[in-house]
Amino acid sequence: MAAMKPSEKLICTFSPTHNPFPTFPPPYSPQSTNRKPPPLVAPGQSTHSSQADQYTQSTLSRSSLSPSPLTQFHTWFASAQSSAVHQPETTCLSTAHLPSGSISSRYVYLKELDARGFVVYSNWATSRKAADLRSNGQASLAFWWREVERQVRVEGEFERLAEEESQTYFDLRARGSRVGAWASEQSRVLGGGREELEGRVREVESRFEGEERIPVPEFWGGGRVVPRVVEFWQGRESRLHDRFRYTKVEGEGAGEGEWKIERLSP
Fold this sequence. Notes:
Helices cover 20% and strands 26% of the residues. It is built from 5 helices and 9 strands. It starts with 68 loop residues before the first helix and ends with a strand.
């Protein structure tokens, strides 16, 4: 399978008698000394109903699934693109630090899907995710495609791409983004504020002045989540969603690329 090309509560009160809809207090003002910030209650998109949206666009059956979760993801991703899903490559990458077990998440872009897994690019030296992965080489990805009422979850081992592979993608980035990768010690405190960061950018620009090809930093590059579990979720009415989980079959007698597919309760 060919790799994808990179793409650059309000507080509410309910009447105990007959009113089925929430009523809302006056908006919270940060300058107020008499009221605390209100908690939030979902759904937050409507003041007319306390019920969540119903998902009715599609269904998902065992017979419609590919034997491979990577092929199935490719199919769904292409469908998301054709359905005008906003930036379907956006994914939530979650990592956990050991021994504390503390979890951190952030949104990144999926840049490639290849025969081994899901590839993202980032700083792997100073970032929080880098520290997590040094202590625990497991990661997860979560995609949410609202326009088609679908989710995909991925769990697996993380591995770094070779420098040559990272350089190939790095060369495709805008020059400012390549300079920024060198300049930013991602997640480190900027004691000197924005000015400190902009000063580092100027230093890098001066260092590579006149050079069109900038080498990829050794601390920056691609990382791949090699899937062990992949779940496909299709929203359905009354919260009775269709969920199918692919689990990699391991051990003696397991064929290469063999996956067990199971339907899960919503």
